[in-house]
Design goal:
The chain contains three helices and three strands. With 89 residues, it is an alpha+beta fold.
Length: 89
């Protein structure tokens, strides 16, 4: 199992638009560390937004909306750049 904090959430990723965030660092953390684990590895994010508390590496590689196994850095940065979210209070 892996605890991913705010790096890899279930079907999404953490934000990079504040607090010195970096899409490139996020991408490499997911692709070079998390997605190198066996597909059966359980993923526990820091919190959930979909009422799911756990996923697997294989599930995220296939179904993550922002970073699948074949997603490029440019594709992730495009998704992150298009988000128009308010800053947390």
């Amino acid at each position: 199992m892996i605890f991913t904090g705010d790096t890899l959430l279930i079907r999404k990723t953490g934000r990079t638009d504040f607090q010195q965030g970096s899409g490139e660092k996020l991408f490499h953390s997911i692709k070079q560390y998390i997605y190198m684990l066996p597909d059966s590895t359980k993923v526990y994010p820091g919190h959930d937004y979909t009422r799911q508390m756990m996923s697997t590496v294989g599930g995220e590689k296939r179904y993550n909306l922002w970073v699948r196994a074949d997603t490029t850095l440019e594709e992730l940065e495009e998704v992150l750049g298009a988000m128009k979210l308010d800053y947390p209070k």
